[in-house]
């Protein structure tokens, strides 16, 4: 086993030497093992990198002190019941300033109620399932402590259906996994298909996490004359679909969610994944100096040449930067004051996805966008090409490059 990255040692040694009053305690949660681990570990590693940079610079200035970030990490394994137990544990900690993370929609639905009940500020990332935020609107919560820092499935499904229309494809098969995420994504896609009115669903099929044969579902897609396949699930199962399409000679576009921009899809699908499309806000290309510098730091810190899930890594990094900015504005480690600052961030925050200007506003249960950071104009269509995610439209490279240019 190789030695740990240098910044991990720096974080550990720094934590030992700090008094409680000099620290800001946050938790990173997510699927760091299991079927969603590519998303979870990438988010965690991006967050760790931002934390190391903040601590190395002396911490977050609060009054006469500089607070260095101390981290608790919890692996929910992508399991709803484990996520609920972790949330209960963390919500009981009086010193906790906030929580960042969660990959799976079901985990958010099972656990976030404990944070909300205690008023603990949480930034959900990279979880995209619409229901993890819509639940608060349905419940009529008036003063929400939960925010999302991810491109929600409403945005992603609108982009996927618009892509079908742009290509003149009118007959589609929709395959989704049976989890909360897959079902929520299915509903978003069907809503968009009805709203846009130019696409007919000729096969609507589900599958389970861990399924390794999608032949039955794909035969129904072929029999129905599908001109494209929409898939809402994790990367590994989507790769099984891509391989199944190749085996059956079903040569039609495959379009999925941002979860497909991960190594468990590209490595398992191989060349059969080429051309697959998915919405993204970050592509692993050095499109400008800030992004190039981030990629160089990430690759060096983790001794990799490719990030397992690039968008999740960038979201983890930017999320920590935004949280730290809220702490500095609040001049407090109190979770409620941090929440208030997040709703009215006054200074821009330079990230690798964008320069974030007032990403959130005061919670309005009638308008979920008040606690959603991303808008559709921040997303582009990514495409798989020989194991990497590239820009489907080269013009989008310039658009994302400008997003991080002062």
Commentary on this structure:
With 406 residues, the chain is an alpha/beta fold. The protein contains 14 helices and 15 strands. It has a six-stranded mixed β-sheet, sandwiched between helices. The protein has a four-stranded parallel β-sheet with strand order 8-7-9-10. A three-stranded antiparallel β-sheet has the order 11-14-15. Helix 2 (37-56) packs across helix 12 (310-330), helix 3 packs parallel to helix 4 (105-118) and helix 6 (153-166) crosses helix 7. It is globular. The chain starts with 5 loop residues before the first helix and ends with a helix. The model is unreliable at 6-19 (pLDDT under 50).
Q: What keyword list fits this structure?
A:
406 residues; alpha/beta; Rossmann fold; six-stranded mixed β-sheet; 44% helix
What name does CATH use for the topology of the largest domain? Answer: Rossmann fold
CATH architecture assignment name of the largest domain: 3-Layer(aba) Sandwich
Shape: globular
Major sheet attributes: 6 strands, mixed
The unreliable regions are 6-19
The share of residues in helices is: 40-55%
Radius of gyration: 21 Å
How far from one another are the termini? 42 Å
CATH superfamily of the largest domain: Response regulator
- H/E element string? HEHEEHEHEHEHEHEHEHEHEHHHEEEEH
Structural class based on helices, strands and sheet pairing:
alpha/beta
Mean pLDDT: 93
Q: Strands of the biggest beta sheet: in what spatial order?
A: 2-3-1-4-5-6
């Amino acid at each position: 086993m190789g030695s740990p990255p240098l910044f991990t040692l720096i974080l550990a040694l720094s934590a030992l030497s700090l008094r409680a009053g000099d620290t800001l305690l946050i938790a990173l949660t997510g699927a760091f093992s299991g079927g969603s681990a590519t998303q979870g570990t990438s988010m965690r590693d991006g967050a760790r990198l931002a934390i190391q940079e903040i601590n190395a610079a002396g911490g977050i200035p609060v009054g006469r002190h500089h607070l260095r970030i101390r981290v608790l990490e919890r692996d929910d394994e992508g399991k709803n019941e484990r996520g609920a137990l972790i949330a209960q544990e963390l919500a009981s900690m009086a010193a906790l300033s906030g929580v960042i993370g969660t990959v799976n929609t079901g985990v958010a639905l099972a656990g976030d109620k404990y944070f909300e009940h205690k008023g603990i500020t949480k930034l959900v990332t990279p979880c995209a399932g619409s229901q993890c935020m819509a639940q608060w609107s349905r419940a009529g919560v008036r003063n929400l402590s939960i925010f999302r820092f991810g491109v929600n499935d409403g945005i992603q499904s609108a982009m996927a259906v618009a892509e079908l229309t742009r290509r003149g494809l009118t007959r589609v098969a929709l395959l989704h996994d049976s989890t909360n995420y897959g079902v929520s994504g299915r509903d978003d896609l069907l809503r968009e298909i009805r709203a846009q009115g130019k696409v007919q669903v000729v096969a609507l099929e589900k599958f389970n996490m861990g399924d390794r044969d999608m032949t039955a579902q794909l035969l129904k897609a072929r029999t129905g004359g599908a001109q494209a396949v929409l898939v809402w699930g994790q990367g590994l199962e989507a790769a099984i679909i891509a391989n199944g399409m190749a085996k059956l000679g079903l040569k039609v576009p495959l379009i999925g969610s941002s979860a497909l921009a991960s190594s468990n899809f590209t490595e398992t699908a191989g060349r059969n994944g080429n051309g697959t499309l998915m919405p993204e806000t970050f592509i692993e290309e050095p499109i400008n100096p800030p992004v190039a510098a981030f990629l160089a730091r990430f690759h060096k810190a983790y001794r990799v040449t490719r990030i397992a899930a690039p968008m999740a890594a960038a979201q983890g990094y930017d999320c920590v930067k935004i949280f730290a900015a809220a702490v500095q504005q609040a001049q407090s480690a109190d979770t409620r004051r941090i929440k208030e600052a997040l709703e009215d961030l006054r200074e821009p925050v330079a990230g690798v996805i964008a320069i974030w200007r007032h990403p959130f506003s005061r919670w309005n249960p009638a308008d979920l966008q008040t606690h959603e950071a991303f808008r559709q104009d921040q997303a582009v269509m990514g495409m798989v090409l020989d194991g990497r995610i590239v820009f489907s439209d080269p013009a989008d490279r310039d658009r994302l490059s400008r997003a991080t240019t002062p």
